[in-house]
Write a structure and sequence with these properties.
The protein is of the alpha+beta class. The strands form two sheets. The chain has a four-stranded antiparallel sheet, with no helix packed on it. A four-stranded mixed sheet has the order 2-8-7-4, with no helix packed on it. Strand 7 and strand 8 form a beta hairpin. Helix 1 runs antiparallel to helix 2. It is rod-shaped.
């Protein structure tokens, strides 16, 4: 009876735990230039700041302008919660899109986009576009997930532990009460 109660309590605990929101991942908290900014002069770099540290691996920032050419210069630089992307001279005046994809310190990919507009042209011509669309299961610039992102493996491990503990309690009780072991028990 005790073992049954423990197994039932464990299952109810798993049910309650699995209904909480998914673990938090990095979210964009600010950018320079800000999303939607209208600038008198083209920026020399893009800075993205997140609410937690970003992995130095797999980071990507692309800046595309009117006509689709890209203007990033070199790779993005990660320092703690900040990601900085240097820019080549921008091209014509107009709207530019920043597409980014980083991996938060907990290993989950996070991506999004933002836009800014320049009132004056730069002297650059850019390179042909090479960006890819964001993958499912990542976060947008607003920090909203494109999928549930629920990590199911901890729930499975916990369920196995509850079943193993319940089985162990039943076997121990049978031995204590003098019941012969079931087939397969030692």
């Amino acid at each position: 009876m005790l073992a049954t109660a423990l197994v039932l309590a464990g299952c109810l605990g798993l049910q309650a735990w699995s209904s909480v929101p998914a673990f938090a991942h990095a979210a964009l908290v600010s950018s320079d230039p800000k999303d939607g900014a209208v600038l008198d002069r083209p920026p020399r770099q893009i800075t993205l700041e997140f609410d937690e540290a970003i992995s130095r691996k797999f980071d990507f920032v692309a800046v595309s302008g009117p006509g689709g050419a890209t203007y990033q210069s070199g790779g993005a630089r990660v320092l703690g919660t900040k990601v900085t992307q240097r820019l080549a001279d921008l091209g014509p005046a107009g709207t530019y899109q920043v597409a980014w994809r980083v991996v938060s310190a907990d290993g989950h990919p996070v991506s999004g986009t933002l836009r800014f507009t320049t009132r004056t042209a730069g002297g650059g011509h850019g390179m042909p576009a090479t960006t890819k669309p964001a993958k499912p299961g990542t976060r947008s610039a607003a920090g909203k997930k494109n999928s549930s992102g629920t990590p199911w493996w901890p729930i499975g491990v916990a369920a196995l532990l509850v079943v193993a503990a319940g089985s162990g309690l039943i076997a121990a009780r049978r031995r204590r009460d003098g019941d012969p072991p079931s087939p397969g028990e030692s």
